[in-house]
Amino acid sequence: MLPGVLASKVGGGTVSVVRLNGIIASASGPVPRSVINLQAVESALVRAFEAENAVAVALVINSPGGSPTQSQLVADRIRGLAAEHELPVLAFCEDVAASGGYWLACAADEIFACPTSLVGSIGVVSGGFGLTGLIERFGIERRLHTAGANKARLDPFQPEKPEDVEWLLGMQGELHELFIEWVRSRREGLDESADLFTGEVWTGRRALELGLIDGIGSPHEILSQRYPDAEPVGVEPRKPLLARLGVGVLGGVPGLGASSLDPAAAVVGALEFLEQRAHWSRFGL
């Protein structure tokens, strides 16, 4: 817990509860997927902090991480709203608050988790596929024209170059340092003798010992203790216009969303599913 955390307001009121669930990625369309980014969650955050008689804001986090930039944008927005409205922020880790998910948790004044939650993964990862053998097998000719020697780094259809890998590792190292700086700025009492910044992930119980969280407990348990007279109220983001109208992204069929009869929609859905599964599977989920 940070020093000087805002004192809890007493008596009645409500606790705004905002769920941050899914991978952290930039917005991809007018109808929301199960992703976290500033565009998707800002309306919920603003409504949570501006709620009448709010005494605190609780963030329920279940995320394996994703985009460093979106993680920072959402976290900065949380801190800005907390300072503006002088409300304490409590984060609750569910199945996993790892990598960017832990970045978001650190935006809170206090962090709680279940003993079985997976917490941490303070590191940077990127991945892709090498498809040079695949296109040769099917007789596909790759045509790529660039202006700038470094414009096509790590192209999956070309052999991997050592200099490109070196560049990527340097970029990851810089992002890692920014992640570490953020955690250290938000968390006191870290066990610096442990390898906290290797990308390792820990159970909630171990995370408490290492100083990565402040306590063990569920939202219901902790909020009923801290704010016994306050009512927890879930706050949802405002749905985009197309989602409210029930109009499909590709098919344009009211009430059906992206029609299962649309081959393009099926491909997009399959790719999104695989992308999300890859993030979650790193934590056995």
From TrEMBL:
Q: Which Gene3D superfamilies match?
A: 2-enoyl-CoA Hydratase, Chain A, domain 1, 6.20.330.10
Q: Does the keyword Lipoprotein apply?
A: no
Q: Where would one find the signal peptide in this protein?
A: none
| Domain Peptidase S49: from-to ranges | 85-223
* Superkingdom in the source lineage: Bacteria
User: Which keywords accompany this UniProt record?
Assistant: Hydrolase, Protease, Serine protease
Family designation: Belongs to the peptidase S49 family.
- The name under which this protein is listed is S49 family peptidase
